Amino acid sequence: MSRQVLIIGAVALGPKAACRFKRLEPESRVVMIDQGEIISYGGCGIPYFISGDVSEPDQLQSTSFHMLRDPRFFRDVKDVEVLTRTRALSINRKQKVVAVRDERSGETSEMPYDLLVLATGSVPNRLPIPGTDLDGVFTVSNIEEAVAIRNRVSRGLVEQAVVVGAGAIGLEVAEALSDLWGVETSVVEIRDQILAGFLGRNLARMAHRHLQTRGVEVNTGETVLRFEGEGKVERVVTDQRILKADLVIMAVGVRPNAHLAREAGLELTPGGGVAVNERLQTSDPAIYAGGDCVEITHLITGKPAHFPLGSLANRQGRVIGTNLAGGNAVFEGAVGSWVMKIFDISVAGAGLTLGAAKTAGFDAASTLVVQFDRAHFFPEKDLMYLELVVEKGSGRVLGIQGLGNKGDGMVGRINAVAAILKDRPTTADISNLELPYSPPFSSAMDILNALGNTAENMLEGRNRTADPDFFAQCWEERGTGETLVIDCRAPRNAEPYVRSHPWHWKNIPQDELRRRLDEVPRDRKLLLVCNTGVRSFEAQRILDQAGISDTLNVQGGVAALKKCGLDPAGEQDDG
Amino acid sequence: MSRQVLIIGAVALGPKAACRFKRLEPESRVVMIDQGEIISYGGCGIPYFISGDVSEPDQLQSTSFHMLRDPRFFRDVKDVEVLTRTRALSINRKQKVVAVRDERSGETSEMPYDLLVLATGSVPNRLPIPGTDLDGVFTVSNIEEAVAIRNRVSRGLVEQAVVVGAGAIGLEVAEALSDLWGVETSVVEIRDQILAGFLGRNLARMAHRHLQTRGVEVNTGETVLRFEGEGKVERVVTDQRILKADLVIMAVGVRPNAHLAREAGLELTPGGGVAVNERLQTSDPAIYAGGDCVEITHLITGKPAHFPLGSLANRQGRVIGTNLAGGNAVFEGAVGSWVMKIFDISVAGAGLTLGAAKTAGFDAASTLVVQFDRAHFFPEKDLMYLELVVEKGSGRVLGIQGLGNKGDGMVGRINAVAAILKDRPTTADISNLELPYSPPFSSAMDILNALGNTAENMLEGRNRTADPDFFAQCWEERGTGETLVIDCRAPRNAEPYVRSHPWHWKNIPQDELRRRLDEVPRDRKLLLVCNTGVRSFEAQRILDQAGISDTLNVQGGVAALKKCGLDPAGEQDDG
Predict the structure, then answer these.
(1) Is there a contact between B445 and A314 if contact means CB atoms under 8 Å apart?
(2) What is the ipTM of this complex?
């Protein structure tokens, strides 16, 4: 049986579905249309094209064997017909035709289908403020825009840039402008932390600080009011300051491009995406949809969610290709795995942050662990920072986030948890994850295993914790004298702190604690710190045994405090 | 309730169990005994101490915060008593006492217990041949031996070394001797491949070749007959040659050290390990055991297996610690995750190799995929080689092995599969693994996803494959003229091959194949190759459609052949 498959959209999901289908059913005909000129490109590579890491836009559109994925490629290699600059205007589901317009000639026509695929992607949000149409104000939604941005930057026309939005795309572009081109770049974010929804407060502090040490000014909790300039943008006016800017990038999220589906009467999700079942079929069985234009099931909350990610689009494309050919492939949903590079570090995660878990109605808590990324006796190593979000009571793991150096070690840990997250793991499953071990790659008790152990100890009340954020709050209020820090490290490490803050910081090395219990005050709340939180946990157990229980173990220890920019060593105390 | 816990063995599992138990039940007493002087060290770090990467043996015995884990440490920090140089002689289960001998004084005594933990580890196998007691012949089973080996090497006393056994330890030590100290090192392996049981034949070829390019001579399929020398070792005599040697390392595996358990009448496994249940309890409920002295369930075969790995010992130690305190923690078993560095590459795996799967009775097949480790348009990238072992029919995934550069990208992929392997994933689960994606770390369709897809296509008969090993065999027999290679790459890539082998190698680029079908001979078996196996798969589909079905797609393409040392480009053909 030869069938006619029509695919609207030829960037990520469309080509994947087309090729998979043709391999399964070579006798059928596939036509793919796209409103743009450039098709089948790696959109997630745009920041690396802007930076110059990727030298030509063609590279984003090429196969690994250097063939350009243009209409000729799809015809000769894949036997798929592609029409570019061709816009779908409406779908007539009864007649099974799509009205299209050739954007070159302006002519309209109708294209028939037996099966239709919607791969219409997403549209970038634009701020509802004055000045967004000034020259020099961009979103970063396609290659054409990226080329325009890089042209300006590479010709030296940009001295100062403002990125609005501290999400993944915004920060990647900020790094590209700042690091490779030396553009003075600042980021303005309306929420009170960067990467909201991706990182919890503590890891966000660390990433924020890293951006600042690399010269990117990040202003959180700040609202952009308007862009100003004569013809071209010159200034960004926020509720707190005026920033000079030759270039503005609006990176304030995207939303599903579902207007064709809506007008055709297909079911939509509450978030405005095309609604699909597990086979990625819309409410019309002859129409499939996937990628950025749909909402799929968030496998932690069970609710529809928008995951505009090229990786999911590709996997969904294959599922659709199989099902177009009469198969029965399913796409269950996603847990939201992600990773990004920020200068010299990587941040990554899967599932929910602590904040998102609470918003979703979970009675959630989180634990932070700091440990070397490989055997501590191995010469090359770095500290890694991982946060596990868990449900109290059940011990169910809801999410994980982490920060490490820019190598692959961080994403490798997230890989392991992302792989099991949909199957409702508990902390014990993390404790027992069987990660490959060898000193150049991991620890015998890897940081992931330690994370599961620590979360379990926290949930069972054995490890009563304070995160760096809470430590900062206590430290701010230390003037009341209610709190005392007990530093469980060796005297040489604790000494600068004790010297600066004699009334607030006391050193009792953990290995001396059992015999120095009478030095521990019983009338103050104790914050126990060591280098990473291991010895202070041990100290807490000793103090518990001695009946001293008003203690909190500072998670991640001084290493985490330093990474958050909260190190009190240098400050001079007035107390 | 205060109890007396006695632990025999203080290297990995013992200390972990002791510390976990003491945190849960601080009022109880724990005594740990060990026959050695040095306790609680990272045995897996020994090759890195021999190489000099780890400068002092103390570092293997220290915490990440530089405290030496000696008896004083365990007393002050952990409230655990340790007796070194104390050998357990026998267990009286009725009286609940262990007879011990102080190896310093020779005095014997009895130590009572309420609960006993056997952490007696493993003993290295020694070859049953003449000369193993010559000076200069070592196993690598403890720090004392490692110190002796490094002393010889660092004092310049070793010019030539022979390592017997090409398992993980043998190869790590060979690298240490060769790379850091410049010792002329050769490895002799009785089996016909290196890392048997860890890698399949194709990846083993690649790793073997890498060792040889780095100057380590590896002789497989060769049996050592005896060591010879006057007082100290001078020669290794095999069934094929005589190798000069100042130093011999026997790295021919280890076996559970279970003699105490056996003599006490505890149940053993067929492989000679202590038998334990999921709570890691022996056949005597008052006695727990774990680490190298037990066999645990292999979660793929369901049978008992010996996994002498520090990582598992640590996790088992925590389970025992919990259960000593009346908890109910379980250790289900292991899938056998592992990783090792070999000079500039890493090799890793989990579950069964193709050979092991067949031996275990599975109707198994495997697929090899070669792809970049990150987005192909990202400037820094390397090819990665992954093999997936699957059960025919069910599509169940039985194992994965891989080879990549020495970074963390390889182990990160294995992490993801190792995490789900015990839950009987199918190829679809690998295809849909939700790995975090960003161009600096991975591909939109990551190599792991591609591996699942390829395995599915193979199992469903759409991708009929030949692995490099089979290619080598066909190529060897090419004189018969039965086989023709169709090179689907661009002419510039294929040209050197066609020139050298005009009768055996023909170039039809895949994008021209549909219109050049009449050039394809129908009377010869066709081996389809491209660079990595993607275009040749596409070509196979086109040929199938044209009714030409006596074709095999060479997995991993020319990239895999080259990596295996099987590149026919340079050879001159007589055909």
Answers:
(1) yes
(2) 0.95
